[in-house]
Predict the 3D structure of the following.
Amino acid sequence: MAEDFLKIQNVSKLYSGVQALDNVSMSIGQGEVHCLVGENGSGKSTLIKIIAGVVTPDGGEIIVRGKSYKNLRPIDSINEGIQVIYQDLSLFPNLSVAENISLNQLIEEKKKIINWKEVKNIASSVLSTIKKELDLNEKVENISIANKQLVAICRALLRNAKLIIMDEPTTAITKKEIDKLLSVILDLKESGISTLFVSHKLSEVLQIAEKVTVLRDGKKVGDYNAGELDYDTLSFYMSGKKIDHSVFDYQERADQKTLLEVKDLSKKGQFEDISFKLRPGEIVGMIGSLGSGRTEVALSLFGLNKPDSGSIYMNGEPVKINSPRKAISLGLCYLPEDRLNQGLFLKQSIQNNVVVTNLRKILTKSKLLNYSKKYEYAKMWVDELNINVPSLEIAVQALSGGNQQRVVIAKWLATDPKVFILDSPTVGIDVNSKSNIHNLIRQLAKKGIGVIMISDEVPEIVHNCNRILVMADGRIIQEVDTVDITEDKLFDLVSSNSKNSEG
Amino acid sequence: MTGTIHKSQIQKVFNQNEAYLSLIIVAYSILVTSLNPSFLSFENLLDLGKSSASMGIMAIGVFVVLLSGGIDMSFTAIAISGQYIAANVLIASGVDNIYFAFLISCLVGLSLGAVNGLIISYFKIPTFIATLGTLNVFHGILLTVVGTKAVNSAQLPDCFKKFGATNVFTVVKPEGGSYGLSIFTVIFIAVALLTWFILTYTQLGRGIYAIGGDMEAAKRSGMNVFNIQFFIYCYVGILAGIAGVLHVSLIRYSNPTYLVGSELSVIAPVVLGGTRITGGSGTVIGTILGVAMITLLNNSLILIGLSSFWQEFFTGVIVAISVSLSSYQIRKSMMI
Ligand SMILES: Nc1ncnc2c1ncn2[C@@H]1O[C@H](COP(=O)(O)OP(=O)(O)OP(=O)(O)O)[C@@H](O)[C@H]1O
Ligand SMILES: [Mg+2]
């Protein structure tokens, strides 16, 4: 192989007491597909931001095509042809899809005057490379999280990009779109463009990577050829532990009454005739690709998406859920798909985020906040869920993805729910934390909470649910007990029915 | 997904803030005219165009700052500094030339704006605090170093008065006297057009929208955020300088204690015009409509015979309502 495109030497970064990176070196060859893996908080995004010139390392050197940079700025990195899809996407919510996609190219070309025709042309030509259509005039703040990810991906696929870095670009998009993206990556490779890819979906990693670099706690574990790895060894390198392959064993109790019942719930253009029951202690999986109506149903149950018809019963009583407040008072809670925007107050402390759903419990007699109670309460949940944080005072923003997700779960558990709806609870979460979160969910079910788990990952559903609702085009096309189906069969069922359901 | 399309359609209708505002302006004009028929005369409208120009130009400046996610509280001090220094320099030098007056006032505006820009982009102080500070500093320096004595109409160089009376075209009334389209209005329109062009067709202008949308994302995409912010505050400074000259030419009197204190009445029309106070969203047309609405309101209250204290009250009420409406819309669009 030719000379390395990028070399990183002895890079370190200390964040207020956290050694995010510790003396890390790696290199990326030309046209190489390189994956960076590691648990949540192992320093992957930090490393990427350093390569992008967004974060200045405490020490070390970045060498791009033989040129050494001590103080790399974003514009230098862009001029070297490095394009980054950030984990938080870093889009401009107030600008149109077209402008978001073409902005980087216009900056790169040092355009002073904007030609709006060109803006649209750039955007539609990039969109066509991933065979996707989006409303170019729509503001990015109004599009779905999956489409936002696609916009961020498109933005990086510039004409003169030499290295495209993707920090978990596929958490929200459908299998079909992921496949398209992976084939784009292979095309890029053909034309000599390198890719650095971060993902927690290890099967994806093993499918496309040539080289894999593993980070753990800010230190490099090693560089491997993808050929010498399999799922279990890779996850072992990441966590230093063997992962737990156990499954949910549901003990049916004959006397259990129905906790939640949904009858013929319909909403035009979203879902039709949704009926199912949930008993205490059950984990019911709702699987279906994006656009199958699963999230819309969940939002309806949580009072955020008024259905046109149908009825909902809690403990046999008919209920009308017209607001999240009502839903919470009935004992329902909802972990949103898009945790960054909908589940957390990112700039607020961990403590504040945990207590926000349940301020009542931490008031003094005169209805003012009791600070020591607040701290204890938050601490209790943080300990209960094993959230690994240096202090309860730091902003949630600074936590790794897995820990952020646990904070959201803690926040909802604090409301003492009877029914917990989890929408894609382990998106962007490393294998080890993922199995921890799965264990946590199973424990909740053991305690008698009824859980609805929405996911498009077949193994996640099969390992954790006792009953599965398969959704496609807004309908439940099949309801099965998990013991009666195999992963392969479920996979076929889901993928053969996802043809009409594009985001 | 059909749900998304549906939502965005609603939003396209709802975000027509400008359409609403135009409707309200028309309806309100009809109402006022029915109470006082002289209101909707061509003469009165042209007159409004003239008297609102200086506030309008400052509003455009404020609009640009708000768009970038910042706020400028010091522009009134800049405007009055430019005006007062220009008037004094003209008197002292004996040069009686309006271009020279504009040159001085704009230079003062540019320098003070640059100070704001440097403080904000270099020291990264929140814009509100930085400009609230410089408001007092600029004004304090003006009063202590340049002076506190007002320049009265007799002392004021003739060029200001001539300029204030310049019309682009003039209509002679049959009953005597005349009125016309003031050069002030033309300057206001030119400033609005220039600003619209910068914001819509230049990379710099898009950068202003971008940093208002997400500052961190703007940095990451390699934009020179420092330069963009510096430009914004210099631009506001220059506009304030222009507005200062228009102001003195209109009232034929320069008092260094004028203007300062009226910041909110300039920010009000901008917010009313649909500019999001958190940045990233707003239009020049909206700002012009906002200026029109406030001008209309102030003028009509006088025509109806209400005291000018009511103006402040109504301005406050209108701004409160429009801000609540727009934040309600934002909340609705974000669902939670
Ligand atoms: N701005 C910041 N301030 C303080 N600490 C930070 C900041 N950014 C990251 N960290 C800390 O640095 C460590 C590495 O974070 P980083 O985001 O690089 O992890 P990651 O590998 O990308 O994790 P994930 O898989 O969850 O995205 C974490 O412990 C995180 O809490
Ligand atoms: Mg990360």
Summary: The mean pLDDT of chain B is 87. The radius of gyration of chain B is 21 Å. DSSP finds 15 helices and two strands in chain B.
